[in-house]
Specification:
OB fold (Dihydrolipoamide Acetyltransferase, E2P); two-stranded antiparallel ribbon; alpha+beta; single chain; about 210 residues; elongated; about 25% helix; 7 helices
Length: about 210
């Protein structure tokens, strides 16, 4: 089946039931829906930090491997949570997701991930940890560098898109699925909503001089 704007995502990409449910919650059914699911912001891999450089109250972005994932309850509070460790070449740091035990089942040990969150410190042990960090799987570390969404593959940059997510669908999944769609030539079938006369003026020598 040809990949068109009206094509259903489930007809062209292998996805699990959890992902199907997540796409439904996000209102994404077709290729066009996904193309117009715009990022809420752009992160910058240039701001990434190493584990050994972290200090209390930092807002940190770390790329590394996730290990030691497990779901548990707080000893005193009985609060459900998930814990794990993100590890880079400089050390490892515990991550704690309060009231989110399902995180321990969404990821597996050894996955390359990007985590972002606030660095907290346990008063008694003086140990640092990330509290409720945002986490997403990445295929390379760091994600996006040297691989522009809209470029020709030779454009180097440090920005990466962060999309609205739902359990089962991450920004990383959306990022790489969109790249597959772009490579299929779908953009060539979309008519630019900006009139040709305006586009010609934008790139005219007079505008360049201005």
């Amino acid at each position: 089946m040809p990949l068109t704007l009206s094509a259903r995502i489930t007809d062209h990409f292998r996805i699990t039931q959890v992902q199907k449910d997540a796409l439904k919650r996000l209102g994404i059914e077709t290729v066009e829906n996904l193309l117009y699911h715009f990022p809420v912001r752009y992160g910058d891999t240039a701001e990434a930090k190493s584990v050994d450089s972290l200090q209390q109250s930092d807002t940190a972005v770390i790329f590394g491997k996730i290990n030691g994932l497990r779901a548990s309850k707080g000893f005193k509070s009985k609060m459900t949570m998930a814990t794990g460790y993100v590890e880079d070449e400089t050390g490892r740091l515990q991550c704690v997701w309060f009231n989110q035990p399902y995180v321990a089942k969404m990821y597996t040990d050894g996955m390359l991930v990007r985590v972002e969150g606030k660095v907290s410190e346990r008063r008694k042990k003086k140990e640092l940890y990330l509290s409720n960090p945002k986490i997403e799987v990445v295929e390379t570390v760091p994600i996006g560098v040297g691989d522009s969404l809209f470029g020709d593959g030779n454009e180097s940059h440090t920005l990466y898109p962060v999309y609205p997510e739902s359990r089962g669908i991450t920004s990383s999944w959306i990022y790489h699925t969109l790249q597959k769609i772009f490579k299929a030539g779908i953009l060539d079938t979309i008519e630019d909503p900006i009139p040709v006369s305006i586009l010609e003026n934008i790139i005219s020598p007079a505008c360049v001089r201005l």
